[in-house]
Amino acid sequence: MDTVIDAHNISKVYNRNTIPVYAVNNVHLHLNRGEFTALVGPSGSGKTTLLNMIGGLDKPDEGNIFINGQDITALSANELIDFRLRNIGFVFQSFNLIPVLTAKENVEFIMQLQKMDKKDRDERVLQLFQQIEMVDKLDERPSRLSGGQQQRVAVARALATKPQFILADEPTANLDSKSASNLLDIMAKLNKEENITFLFSTHDQRVIDRARRVITLVDGRIINDTAAVSTAHQQA
Asked: How far is residue 7 CA from its own chain's centroid?
């Protein structure tokens, strides 16, 4: 299987000069293309820190992270910005939509950063809004959308540039049960039909129940890594 993420012995340390505190402690993590994985653990266990390092939003103090074979820990700040733009999609708990832009413009914005031409942008936006079942909301601003609708737009934005994988940090935390279920249905469909890799950081049992692999972190260390159903079996 194709390896998407390969993190080797990564650590994030605070207070290095006094009493070191490990937010992430000597973690090795390997993800293949098409996995649908939940990263779980109590608050303060290191889930978000680990996700941020994999996504290139933060750098490990020790170890290396390879994305499709490229060591992102060796990239400069500008190289890392470009790499994230072209390879990684992010979905955040707080949606992070730009309030003055419409739903369409929020999704289109990242493609403009990639300098995609308008015809291709329009085609991609329409395709994405069909996938998230929100074609009728293209011209609505975030303030006129429900929390679940805003999070679906955030998913579309994450997918806009056809990234290698999606990192989702507590994506259902602010959603009611119906909205969370709808969002997870969309993500699971994208995973199955387009083989998009998803890595969630979550406390939400609804997400954990849908994951095919569950990785448990405690005090910055992986203490359990369970494949509920193999990827090959799920896609068969």
From this structure: 16
CA distance 146 to 132: 14
Q: How far apart are CA 214 and CA 220, in angstroms?
A: 15
Q: How big is the chain, counted in residues?
A: 236
Tens digit of pLDDT for each residue in 153-192? 999 999 998 888 999 999 999 899 999 999 999 999 999 9
Residue-number span of the structural domain to which 215 is assigned: 36-52+76-235
Report the C-alpha gap between 229 and 220 in whole angstroms. Answer: 25
The pTM of the full predicted model, rounded to 2 decimals, is 0.89
List the structure tokens of 170. Answer: 């507590």
**Can you tell me the distance from the alpha carbon of 57 to that of 54, in angstroms, rounded to the nearest whole number?**
8
Per DSSP, the three-state class of 127 is helix
Looking up residue 223, the CATH number of its domain turns out to be: 3.40.50.300
Q: Does 59 map to a domain?
A: no
Query: Nearest 5 degrees, angle CA 214-CA 216-CA 217?
Result: 150
Q: Among residues 1, 10, 3, which one has the least CA distance to residue 54?
A: 10
Q: Which residue has the tokens 């390896």?
A: 3
